[in-house]
Structure prediction request, 614 residues.
Amino acid sequence: MTRHTRLIMQMVYWAFVLYLFIPLSLMVLMGFKDSKFIGFPIKSLTLHWYKVVIQDLELMSVFAYSFTIAISSTVLAIIIGTWAAMLLSQAKFKGKIIVFALITLPAVLPGIISAIALRIYSQTLGIEPGMTAVILGHTVHNVPFVTLVGMARLNSQPMSHVEAAQDLGADNVISFFRITLPYLTPALVGAGIFCMLTSFDDFVRSFFLGGYEPTLPVYIFSQLRTGMSPEINAISSVVLVITAVMGLAAERLMRRK
Amino acid sequence: MKNATVSLVDISKKYGSFVAVEKINLTIQPGDFVTLLGPSGCGKSTTLRILGGFETPTTGQVFLGDDDVTNIPPNRRNVNMVFQDYALFPHMTCGRNIAFGLELKGKTKAETEARVDELLEFMQLTGFKDRKPEELSGGQRQRVALARALAPDPSVLLLDEPLGALDAKLRKQVQIELKSIQKRTGKTFIFVTHDQEEALTMSDRVLVMNKGRIEQAGSPKDLYSHPESRFVAEFIGETNMLECGVKGIDGKQVVLDWFGTELRGDCRKGSPTPGQKVGAVIRPENITCYSNKPESSLAFELNIDQRIFKGSSTTFEARSSKGQSLTITLDSIRADEIGTEKMWVVLKPEYLSILLN
Prediction:
């Protein structure tokens, strides 16, 4: 690479970084603005909007609601996804490829399509729009991710570990819980954090499957319709920090050998 | 647990049309160090895995003492295995690894701890109890794997090329260690390797395998001195393989023609007939050398091509008048008496084995 092309590459890179971070920085900055209107010029900075956020009981209950949904759908997705990963990477049966395709399909379906499908289906099942429907919707969306990460991890587990456990007297259940599950744990924790973030962030499924109680993205959306205030920026900044930390942690855990 | 006789009766294992193991019959006496030796793909590992219960034979039966264990899964078989990659559980400490089999056998906590400590001391691993496997050296990991397999007191210990991952120097040391551990525990060890030197160093009995069959079984000395097939002769140690024709039988000795030179040797297996093409085998160190023509009807002259000094021994690459090459090894002190261009040799009949196949 000549000096010339390297310089151009570096410029492209920094342009991309700016493109990515200017909107985020503006959003965070506006959350500290001492005025009701979002936009320049900024006369002085304040923590007022963060106080408003903390004291907003409705907002806190929305947070809790979103959080409950994220945790529940993640736990379900991990249980089902791990089971599917074990089945797909170890058992031999006819139509395995079809099972694999069906389990991973929700990951590639457009959100709006699966949201409408789930809405219709849950009503035929008699599940009213609300928390249960949202949790199940998020679970379906998250299972493929856990399955794929779990399968990748299982592939790297030496066959001899399980054989050694059996050799020393473990049956299938004991060798799963004492040998395979601990080996899978870092990958599952990573996948779990990722699932929580996806669930927390999801708008389309939550909007279609939710009842009167909104999840956080749905709540923010409804607030936007009645007019923007820096309170939205403060909420968004808090979410940004939490998700960034969790996302980075998940990425690290999944890469660990 | 008392040692038990291990028997394999008519064991075969097929994968589709591929025959991994064919009609193996084998009895292993309690307390023996037995090695299955052969090149990769000869069926030695499959045989070991059948003993461990990881493979079910297509035909035949496996006996442990008087019990038929052919269809007993590994977790209910009183046999333990040391794996090639050791298969130590990475999330457990050494102590927990060794305790694993004991816990599953329902031993009390106190019994388990006592046994773990005893084994750690036995393997000179005291102080490593709370370390994770990744913090240990290759040799230490190997000892932990051995301790873990010995902990439940199996009647037979299976070892699947456990020295493969060690470097050459450590390997030699561990070979001696392993042999002494086997002696001190008095356990039956069944060891799999492709390394002939390893097999000769440690075993009471070696089974040479080729293409799913046992080619020859015997003590290391027996196999080395009296190979019964070309495969065994060439697989174990260095050898001279002379292509001869049978001239006749003289009492117990077979008279051979090796490109015009008369040789005599023993045939321990089969009966050669005059005119038959056979292989005659002699080890490089068993060839008797002279600087001048000796008093023997079997003596003949060789031209020396190369002389390779190897410290305590010297190897000669030499050629007969008909251009047939021989490798000869001598003590370096004896080698000094030999000239630079020519030497006389005698292939003594007791060192020459005749192979029909």
